[in-house]
User: Fold this.
Amino acid sequence: MTFLEKIKSAQLKNKSKLCIGLDTSLSNIPEHLLSETNPVLTFNKAIIDATKDLACAYKPNVAYYEAYGIKGFEALEGTLAHIPEYIFTIADIKRGDIGATSDQYAIAYQEKFPFDSVTLSPYMGSDSVEPFLKRDDLGVFFLGLTSNQGAKDFQYLDLASGKKLYEEVTDKIREWNKPKNNCGLVVGATKPSELKAIRERAPELPFLIPGIGAQGGSLEEVLEANDSGIALINVSRAICGASRRMDFAEAARMAAMKFVEGMR
Amino acid sequence: MTFLEKIKSAQLKNKSKLCIGLDTSLSNIPEHLLSETNPVLTFNKAIIDATKDLACAYKPNVAYYEAYGIKGFEALEGTLAHIPEYIFTIADIKRGDIGATSDQYAIAYQEKFPFDSVTLSPYMGSDSVEPFLKRDDLGVFFLGLTSNQGAKDFQYLDLASGKKLYEEVTDKIREWNKPKNNCGLVVGATKPSELKAIRERAPELPFLIPGIGAQGGSLEEVLEANDSGIALINVSRAICGASRRMDFAEAARMAAMKFVEGMR
Assistant:
């Protein structure tokens, strides 16, 4: 299946646009798990088991696994192996480096850890992302417009051309998408009017939309702004942190269910 | 010691501005090492032993270790432990993400793998790098102007203010540097005239300068353009790939010696 077919098939299977962000660390999981051999992996498996009929995608945020060192990458490997084949996977890495280094990142997150897609930073330009643009079955979500305060520092800069930098980035990514139809955009959920404008600018690109739940974005407004475009709506803390007691998996399921019902 | 003191002390000790880039993978080391338990680690240790009186810094490019999976992070840990205390270390990660995720990267490359500094992408703005700006003893080199073709896509864009994007980035990083004096810039070596202009714009920032050797930058022109600023001049392939036979460590030493003599 192609990148787009994989997303569509996962969304159809569970009638869901919900992507669950697995931002797991020893400090944000229930205490009773800390005696497990690999608590992060045990936690992720329980979350996956409790939500695999609700989510269309899982997105481990690799920073959390790096911060846990070698055991973190063991957890990442085990988590990926535990995700059912029909669910879409995203390695949230936000890397970006020159060609030879980018080749290595592609080996890492397409072969060593075989994810369906990754997130990348576009900042270093075309040759820095080229190793990820070669296969139509593996995709890339590029940072388009992020929902953090610091986005103002560069992404909103006015260019001499009259565009904002994030608009120029969007246009460039539409070009990068042409050969293999395997690019998408990360667009924050906290500013629906801008999400709507970017959706109009790039109707063909799938969007990965973080910022719902703990970060304050409204699901209803996001769905309206996104119109009929393909969107993966990411929720992390509001699901994975729904309870820190014995019932954490069940609480995660209940929270996920609410989001999915809102989407349906 | 502060970030700047650490760099100066390492440079004084070996009378050298040479940073050796450890971009090590199974496919670029001598074949006779492949039977070792961890060939990447064995290779790095031999390179360090052969050059630790010549280099002022070592810079593992973390992409290469990620591409090697869990064994790669074991190699990274062992490499870091093998670098003498008096030599400066840089984790070349080029990460950049929102605050909570950036916190995790800081844990990963300041605590779990205790490097003296990292490279980061500035693209997501101030709150995305803030976790790295808290300590005056640990530094950050931000992508300023890179030497790859793709740099043209965004870094050279003309802004409405009259600046180029990389000039705006440089100015912003001078601001970020103020509280703790712990920021630097990555500036490619292949365009000395631009290096000179950025040096004039940011005389106080240490530069990490890749692009010498295999990428074609001239050492003499770079030294002249950098003037009296603090610079770490990175060479990877021209040293670590000097020979792929039994004599690889000796060949690396000879290559490193030539660069250091050119600097002295």
Remarks:
- Residues 3-263 of chain A form a domain with the TIM Barrel fold (CATH 3.20.20.70).
- Chain A has a mean pLDDT of 96.
